[in-house]
Amino acid sequence: MDRGRATLAATVDIAWFHSQSKETGTSYDLAVFDPEVTPQTRVDFRAWFDRQTEWTESHGYDDPDVPVPALRNGFRDMITSFPPMNGPLRSANIDDPSVTDYSVGRHLIYGAFASSVGVAAYQAAWAPAQTHRVGFYNVSDDPSDIWVPGPTGALTQLT
User: Fold this and answer.
1) Which of 80, 157, 62 is nearest to 125 (CA)?
2) What's the predicted TM-score (pTM) here?
3) Element at 128 (helix H, strand E)
4) Contact 72, 87 (CB under 8 A)
5) What is the Cα Rg of the chain in Å?
6) Which residues of 70-87 are buried (b: 16+ CB within 10 A; e: fewer)?
7) Which domain covers residue 73, as residue numbers?
């Protein structure tokens, strides 16, 4: 097993996802972000994230061309498995549980996935985060995992 998959396996609590797999009306929220502009401590990152999720940028939040290139490329990878609910790339099949409500900013992409597809969503967000060297934030987990690319490109957890 390669190092990235070993880390992924260690961070995904499969039992939790299975316990949440019933339709509960809740979402499983994940975010990917531009590590070039984010603080490198957990506390400072959370403050930055809270400001970003006020959604004050001067554009619509369903435009796939808004993010910086690395995020945009990762988003394109993610939507092959989890198409957007809104915007120009939206899915025609709104009843498909893989259809996801994304908020797309310049330095942050937030995805509200159906809780029934949590494991697959985690994997679909994790893989492009590593490939495109962007950060990964497990918003729904408590305490939440925040990962940034390390010197070798492998994601490392913020402390």
Assistant:
1) 80
2) 0.84
3) helix 118-132
4) no
5) 15
6) bbbebbeebbeebbbbbe
7) 3-20+27-157
